[in-house]
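Table 4 source record.
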Amino acid sequence: CTTIPSEMLEIELFGSDKNPAKGLKTAKNGFLDSANGGTLLLEDIQELPKPLQSKFLKFLQYGTYYPAGSTVEKSADVRVFLTSSTSLIAEMERGDFRKELYFKIANLQIKVPPLRERREDILAILEVLSQRKKIALPPLDRKEAELLTRYAYPGNIRELEGILEKMNLVARSSKNGEMTAVDIENILKENAKMYALAQGDKAVVRTIQLPSGQEPFDLRAFVDELEKEIIISTLRYNDHNISATSRTLQISRQGLKNKIKRFEIPVNVEDDDSAD
């Protein structure tokens, strides 16, 4: 629902009747026609324009709709799956998503945790994407695998797929057909900057999987790991510049250097002085 103009999206979804007066020279079946008796998947439902949200809500309630430019009501028996990459509750509170539509579709929800909350699955998913897209996955050593599993993936699976394509391109461009940890770090650094520019302030907000509190866990280790993750992410965003990173984290340069040494983060804090 994200990249199609509203008028064209209406035709694609609901179809159109032949109506030369409105510029519709031929009739066209929409997704609902094609999916009649089957299943329809609509991605990024939060991007559906509000006028079409009302029309789509009527279809969900009654199974009927009017094709674009038509005065003849049609019906379809379709099982609908919807996906959203943002919080529909937040979209609703901002007034961008109709409350009636939200409460209609919110009865049954399947929440898929983002990649940053299931880091142990990232390499396996990468293998599946490699096989499905027929894109060779370059060999990964321990450090390279660790870089990939520590990254936040603000773009989730789609970003991981793009990273796979970039890794493949870099490996094919090298003399030995392989890539290094530096190559992966550069790819992740560029992606982080790209998503930061696209998302603005949202890019600095990180989602973490908190312990349930129902079973014992090492609080100090949890906090240390979280602090290390934030420092690594902020260093990457600031091109490993100590002064810029300390300003972002609002701690002293020496305090940041101490933490880098304590957590054994691979940054040369001695050479950084000349780069500030």
